[in-house]
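User: Predict structure, ligand iron/sulfur cluster.
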Amino acid sequence: MSSLFSDVFDSKLRDSWGRFLKNVRLEDVEKSLNKDVLDFEDFLSLISVTNDAFLEKQAQKSRDLTLKRFGHTMQLYAPLYVSNECYNACEYCSFTKDNVIPRKTLNASEFDREVTFLTRQGFQNILILSGEDQRKLPLSYFEKLLERMSPHCAYKGLEIYPLDLEGYIRMRAAGVDGVVVYQETYDEKVYKELHTAGPKRLFHKRLNVPDWIGQSGIRHVGIGALLGLSDWRLDVASVAYHAHYLTQTYWKMKVSISVPRIKKGPEGFAPQDEVLDKDLVQIITALRLFLPDCGIVLSTREPENLRDHLILLGVTQMSAGSTTNPGGYEVDPESLKQFDIVDHRPVENIVSVLQNKGYDPVWKDWDGEMS
Ligand code: SF4
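Assistant: Predicted complex:
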């Protein structure tokens, strides 16, 4: 049997990275930054507290490398929430199972309305999202949605409950191009404290989900941590290590990394280790230099000015004009959101911003990216 990520990742590894990070010297950062090909220790140096003096240089290098690998392009995608049903209890999420809210799952015609709304704006890359509840949202539900959106979309993504290998093979047959699954935090202790009920409690099982996606032959996986739930440097290191493992193990599969930050929530949930704007720049540019071919995804959780700035520094894919509630575009705009959007600009504004910076908004470029 082939290896799985849980065979190569554990808390001892994170502890050793923690020790390494404490001992990074300024000359280590400079040396790492002068390399063309970075190893994992170089990456740790770039995300260390010590790296302050060289952030400007790091940003410039990241920008140059991104332009070299991806050109002046930005892929645009839209999240489409289809349900807020969930059987998990996650402390930081408004869809958590014990939250008494009106639960809503789009039916076929409501789904069509949302797809039409998005495709009229130009979106060809749509990510179907839902809470995690396989009993109320069986795979046959998603198969039907995929079939309905197929004639209208070039790229069909899924961010739903994790599946096993057989499940992903079935989703691949239904036309899925990519799957997103966040570990949320790679800190096992914090993970167990924050995920108190439901199948998501199983830390190691979730760690191995991207392996099943890779083995199924689905051509794209998105991973990430909700930065701030635990020590952000160690979580960023874990995501980078995971992405590197996946690119080495499943070389045909494209890997993207998302960098969402957890913010103080309406129910009082606060980040344990707040990620500042300058930290996010450090994270994105370090990821780019260590993993030159990985996609880096930025959502509308982030404020306008910061998003506009990050366009130039390493990001390759952005959402625009998003909502985070089921039916949020047309069907039921007032339903409860999973989290608050910060950049509310409509898609046409984002397109103008990109064009003013000399970037082409890309609605459909999967063949080029995947080859
Ligand atoms: S984060 Fe996902 S699994 Fe957890 S409560 Fe929210 S929707 Fe459910």
